[in-house]
UDP-N-acetylmuramoylalanine--D-glutamate ligase (Fictibacillus arsenicus), 450 residues
Amino acid sequence: MKNKEFFTGKNILIVGLAKSGFAAAKLLHSFGAHVTVNDRQPREGNAEAEMLEQIGISVECGGHPFSLLDDDIDFLVKNPGIPYENPLIAEAVKRKIPVYTEVEIAGLISEASIIAITGSNGKTTTTTLIGEMLKNSAKTPVVAGNIGTVFSEVAAKSTSDDILVAELSSFQLMGTEKFKPQISVFLNLFEAHLDYHGSVDEYGKAKAKITENQDKDDYVIYNADDERVTELMKHSKAKHIPFSVKRQLKEGAYIQESTLYFQDRKIIELKDIVLPGEHNLSNIMAAVAASMLAGASTEQIGKVLTTFAGVTHRLQYVCEVEGRRFYNDSKATNILATKAALSAFEKNVILLAGGLDRGNTFDDLIPSLKNVKVLVTFGQTAEKMADAGRQAGIETIKRADNVEEAVPVAYSHSKDGDVILLSPACASWDQYKTFEQRGDMFINSVHKLK
């Protein structure tokens, strides 16, 4: 572990006692830092707060008093989900106290090289693919960040024999100053999280911090088909490795005669790739580029691409029942994600969609419904979704109370060769605690059909 001495004796305030805050507090305390943790939840029943206090960490619960900033704080580590408009965070910025996320800590202490992945969509799939592709290579891949274990916790245990593969959000990257991965991956940039960042430009700048400190000895892999990403990459000092599903870019990953290449090296024929969808082809190309640069073999990459059917809840192939293929895309919590899922199938799709009503219409989804033969809606947006289906010319539109009921309804209107796809285009919180719970309910209902 590197740079432990950097933290020794520092006064550090951690704001937000979620998984990352809890891990960072214990870690920094072990380095000899003077750590104070602040959480808005009351102390009563706060097991994490009690555990931290037992090892000598000061914990302030129930609010965010400004007095916490009066003790010569060297820097503050905030939970990524806490906005900068939070009064305590805003006051820290005003007092010129550095505000980090635990990603900054991970980058400072890691002995392992780092592959960092960001983008609006596809991060988890790409991160998982890279982790699988690097198995059996010279270094041991360890997946961390938004999936897997807290990044700083993994970094503390890593050695030079490991390679950390980290999925990072814009929220996490905003709170970095010196973070410098050896390989960075920027998948795409769509309008998202504008309530947090204020504008798509600020959102893009936060994402681009993934390559901000890279130099000529590092690599940045980016989507050359995305104009916003390409523009942001002009400022990167790293070696540029583009990927494209539209053009042959000999310096990166590209398609030629239905075959995927990386820098003129044949990787795999497209027909042999199991994971469906053009958007996933972009994710695959990014993963191939990162894995090849990190030392993966073409044999291992090919093995992964001919067997990997998707991350759970992300256009995940579930099974086939009487010739009907079922796909779970419960992670599609917005219109953009559902459009991407629908583009993976040419025709004969039965779509299950609906969920939390955030006040938007589904007009943007209408052009993508051309391959949908039956629409089954549920949740708060059921009628809005049905209206979009009618405008798209879908003749058969059915309503169900929830996902569990939607599955047999969809099956009853299907035939051999159809695709039955859960891709809600909405958050799950009107009926389910998480999109994972919604997806699990879908899978359970599918298996009941057997």
